[in-house]
Design brief:
seven-stranded mixed sheet; 16 helices; 16 strands
């Protein structure tokens, strides 16, 4: 055991073989992280081809994601995603990443994303209008379809018809099921071979490329004059150099998949948590009644929907879609007095930090009031990072916040959901945190509507 200079954080070499660690991560990553975190704030684990360091203290997380971010590159999952997403803002490094982020940033300014609020509400209200009182729904599938419709219309200026919606949902589900293979020591070799897995991957890639190519062709045909993100991308220039179709494809596919998957999971877990806490659900309904008076919400109502925002915050704390953030050391670096060799993987886990009793009172309790001004007093701000931190903080965060609160408010004014059984919902931590077998729930129409 080693101790850092401040004498606070121990570095422990976990007693796992490289393949046992990899097996444990693939079978139940959250449980493995929790067991490792019990050993200290820095835990070294040997994995095939490298060391992995779990960092579980906000000071160390700040060093990796903010203060010394240039010492680290993308982690294994994002490295693997380059196979599908190409050279997008999510996958690139260095100057190229900064240039791409600078080019995309104006598209997510507050003034621009407020233009999308009406579409978010309209699509949520339309989805809710198709449900029957007492029907059993897979809430995860419903939220995935809804967020797909939102991202398609608001970012790409077109409707999610059945062909596109089914193709993207199917491809995305298959893709996420494959992503844990990125941690296999043989992944880089297998990726070059015509194995059944890689053939299936190429089919998924072809399906998604065809959809994105259709969208690009449609926008070019109408002159790309709209305010949707795809049109803005097609008009974008960097120092008088126009963006290429390949760059548009890579950025579009990244926004398409990231914007759809993460918010779908956030909303899914929010409905589940509300169903487990009727007192929270009742207070949310009271706020919606008082703020909206029976009508649908709008962007102008967001200031009056504070409790809805707290509900979303608390859901993101307990069930963060981005449950782990990986980085790879570019060169030998020292973090908190701990040497991190070049090539090592560093893991930061919002799942752990956001449930740590050192920073959160009653961390396992779903309590939206902790996000009130009074409830936030004295709490470190850097222990809540569902969107990451530093220069690589999620570009679409403002969009995601507005979408989540508006979708929640639009649906909750008319509906609530009840679990179909008392069995625990099994978590599936792959690229995002999902319910492993979907989330069947009974839809109950509120009597007052």
């Amino acid at each position: 055991m080693e101790v850092d200079r401040a004498g606070r954080r121990a570095v422990v070499a976990a007693d796992l073989s490289p393949f046992a660690a990899l097996r444990g991560f693939r079978r139940d990553a959250l449980s493995l992280l929790e067991r490792l975190a019990e050993r200290g704030d820095v835990v070294r684990v040997r994995i095939p081809r490298a060391d992995a360091f779990l960092l579980n203290h906000p000071d160390l997380v700040h060093e990796v994601l903010v203060a010394r971010h240039r010492a680290f590159g993308k982690g294994p999952t994002i490295e693997a995603s380059r196979l599908l997403l190409g050279e997008s803002v999510l996958t690139t490094e260095g100057d190229r990443h900064r240039r791409q982020r600078r080019r995309l940033q104006p598209m997510f300014h507050h003034e621009r994303i407020t233009l999308y609020g009406d579409a978010m509400v309209r699509l949520a209200d339309r989805a809710a209008g198709r449900w029957d009182d007492g029907a059993t729904l897979d809430v995860h599938a419903e939220m995935a379809a809804l967020t797909l419709a939102v991202v398609t219309e608001t970012l790409f200026g077109t409707s999610a018809d059945d062909r596109r919606g089914d193709a993207v949902t199917t491809a995305l589900t298959q893709l996420l099921a494959m992503f844990d293979r990125a941690y296999s020591p043989a992944f880089r070799i297998l990726a070059r071979l015509p194995t059944p897995t890689m053939r299936r991957f190429r089919r998924i890639e072809a399906d998604l490329d065809a959809i994105v190519d259709d969208l690009i062709a449609e926008r070019r045909a109408d002159g790309a004059t709209g305010d949707d993100v795809l049109s803005l991308l097609l008009r974008a220039r960097d120092r008088d150099v126009a963006i290429t179709d390949r760059e548009v494809r890579d950025e579009t596919l990244t926004l398409f998949l990231a914007g759809h998957e993460t918010t779908a999971n956030a909303m899914t877990w929010t409905w589940w948590l509300l169903s487990q806490h009727p007192e929270v659900e009742s207070r949310l309904h009271r706020e919606l009644d008082a703020a909206l008076g029976g009508r649908v919400p709008g962007v102008a109502d967001l200031e009056r929907l504070r409790y809805a925002e707290w509900v979303v915050s608390e859901s993101l704390r307990l069930r963060p879609p981005a449950w782990a953030i990986g980085r790879r050391a570019i060169a030998d670096v020292e973090i908190g007095g701990v040497p991190i060799p070049a090539g090592s993987v560093v893991v930061v886990s919002p799942w752990l930090l956001q449930r740590d009793p050192r920073w959160w009172r009653d961390p396992e309790v779903f309590r939206p009031e902790r996000w009130s001004p009074e409830g936030s007093v004295g709490r470190r701000r850097d222990v809540f990072l569902p969107f990451g931190a530093g220069p690589r903080r999620c570009l679409g965060e403002p969009f995601a916040w507005m979408e989540s609160v508006l979708l929640l408010s639009t649906i909750a004014r008319r509906w609530r959901f009840r679990p179909v059984s008392d069995r625990p919902v099994e978590l599936q931590a792959v690229v995002t945190l999902r319910p492993r077998h979907g989330l069947p729930m009974v839809a109950e129409r509120l009597a007052r509507t």
